[in-house]
Amino acid sequence: MRWRQRLPLSLVFAALALVYAALAEALSLLLSRWLEGAWAALLSVALLAPLLLYHVRRAFAPMNSLFRALAGSVASYRDGDFGFGLAWSGRGELGELVASHNALAETLREQRLALVQRELLLDTMVQNTPVAMLLVDPSRRVVHANLAARKLLGDGRKLEGQSFDALLANTPEAVREAFERGGDGMFTLGDENDVDNGNEDIYHLARRHFRLNGRRHELVLLRQLTAELRRQEVQTWKKVIRVISHELNNSLAPIASLAHSGAELLRRGQLERLPTALATIEERARHLEGFIRDYARFAKLPAPRLESVPWDRFLAQLRTQVEFVAEGSFADHIGRFDVAQLEQGLLNLLKNAHESGSPAHEVRLALRRASGGWRIDVLDRGQGMNEAVLANALLPFYSTKRNGTGLGLALAREIAEAHGGRIALLNRDGGGLCVSLVLPD
């Protein structure tokens, strides 16, 4: 059999053809002694045909075995079994085919091993993450749930195959309300009457939809934020206390010193210097009063009372309090906002623009229509902000000014977001800052 594997099939068939042609001619000559020529040729062919068929089948036998092995290995690959290989000592096209097939099998084995390792790593990460993760199919059945999800929603039991809606029905009301609102959100679990003792847990809900095998699935993520929020809360309170202590000391220390000095001047009868001391005390007291008022305004910002207001009238009233150049066409246009809150927010932005070192005539307010609302740009030609300041400027209590409270931009952001809008800061080409405030209709 091995010699047939090594020889090209064309040579084997040529040899068989020559041998059987010679045998047929010899047998035809032998039979022609008793039969006519045509009948002798037909009889010789009929006698040699079975023998020829046997040798042809013998010649094709190794190749047929190879084809059956190829079909079997392909079926194994389809079933995910890549442990098969083929042995073929022949050369030529069949040898190249077997070598390519074995190379493909080796590549598939390596890829399958790498895929299994990645799946194992991913499953380990998913199972051990503190974020509760659930995959829900279109029929609202749980396809996959990690250990955190089992602990949170199933008391540690497996959730796969269960109805997700039935699971939600057995959860606290806060969880059900968070899902009923749709989209992302936050909710609190625990005893609401014992919040001060830290017996409540705060969770963030994230929901994402995607298609898997052509079907719409939902990925549900539940992340506990209690510890992180408490750390941030503590850090914020520490910063608030530091800022308030600093401002109080800056005002109360000079007030106490000047009050003592005033008493000494009064005792000595040096009344001509007394008005200066009293004026300084008044100035520091008013600064302290404004500082406390700003903090109270920021902490107790009420929900905006929306009303329809002509923009030209609103900007005319704003110009009586701070100087700026108005840009844009706003005659006969109506906005819907809380007049007092938006006025306070824009006053803060315009005063910051004047304090940036910008010439007064370069402080501008541009009003224009935006997609589904209005865009207000406060522009200046001051020094602008570096990247670090831009990243933190909108945070409460962050200020680069020596006597700044860090609440002007934070209050403007709070007002914009309370109206359903947003605020952004960016440096302008040629120097200066642009503060963009977008308000919906």
Automatic annotation (TrEMBL):
GO terms for molecular function: ATP binding. Residues 68-113 form the HAMP domain. Keywords: ATP-binding, Kinase, Membrane, Nucleotide-binding, Phosphoprotein, Transferase, Transmembrane, Transmembrane helix, Two-component regulatory system. SMART domains: HATPase_c, PAS. CDD domains: HATPase, HisKA. It is a multi-pass membrane protein. The keyword Cell cycle does not apply. This is histidine kinase. It comes from Cognatiluteimonas sedimenti. The lineage of its organism: Bacteria, Pseudomonadati, Pseudomonadota, Gammaproteobacteria, Lysobacterales.
